[in-house]
Design a protein that fits this description.
Layout: H1 5-22, H2 41-59, H3 76-96, H4 99-102, E1 105-108, E2 111-114, H5 115-139
Antiparallel strand pairs: 1-2
Helix pairs in contact: 1-3, 1-5, 2-3, 2-5
C-alpha cells in the first residue's frame, strides 16, 4: 500500500466530479465572472489543468513550467476532457513515487517542500476550484447538488 493511496483515490473522484459539474454550467456562462476581479469558470478550469500538469513535470524531476496561454481551452468539452486528462496524468505520476521519493524535496518558484507535501498540492487545488465551479452553479440559479457518489 502506498502512502499516497488516499490522495490518489480522492484525486480520481475530484477529477471526475469536477468534469461532471462543468456540465451544469451553461455554455454561454463559461466565461462569465461574478465580479470584475473574479475568475470565470474557463479561467478556473484552465488553472486546474495547468497546475495538475505542472505537478507532473516536477514529480518527474523537471522544473515548474511557465504558463502557456496558447494551451488554454474554452469549449466545454475541451475543459471537461482537459480536467480528466490532467487528473489522470497527475495520478499516474503519483503512482510512480516511492517512499524514498517522498523524502526528497521539490523546488518551486514559491518555495521548497518535501515531496510528500508537494504531491498533495494539486489535490488541494483541484478541490478548491471544484468548489468555485459549484458556487458559480449556485450563482446561476442551480440549487441542486450534482456531487458524484461513486
Amino acid at each position: 500500500m502506498s502512502p499516497l493511496d488516499g490522495v490518489i483515490g480522492l484525486a480520481e473522484w475530484a477529477g471526475r466530479d469536477t468534469a461532471y459539474n462543468l456540465g451544469f454550467i451553461p455554455e454561454d456562462k463559461l466565461a462569465w465572472k461574478p465580479a470584475e476581479t473574479a475568475k470565470s469558470v474557463v479561467e478556473v478550469t484552465n488553472e486546474i489543468i495547468y497546475v495538475l500538469n505542472g505537478m507532473v513535470d516536477v514529480i518527474k524531476g523537471g522544473a515548474w513550467p511557465e504558463p502557456d496561454p496558447t494551451k488554454a481551452v474554452s469549449d466545454l468539452a475541451d475543459l471537461q476532457e482537459g480536467v480528466k486528462q490532467a487528473t489522470a496524468n497527475y495520478i499516474a505520476a503519483l503512482k510512480t513515487l516511492t517512499p524514498e521519493d517522498l523524502d526528497k524535496e521539490a523546488t518551486l518558484p514559491f518555495g521548497t517542500f518535501p515531496m510528500a507535501r508537494f504531491a498533495t498540492f494539486a489535490l488541494a487545488e483541484l478541490l478548491h476550484h471544484r468548489g468555485q465551479i459549484v458556487y458559480v452553479q449556485s450563482l446561476l440559479g442551480d440549487a441542486e447538488s450534482h456531487m458524484l457518489m461513486d
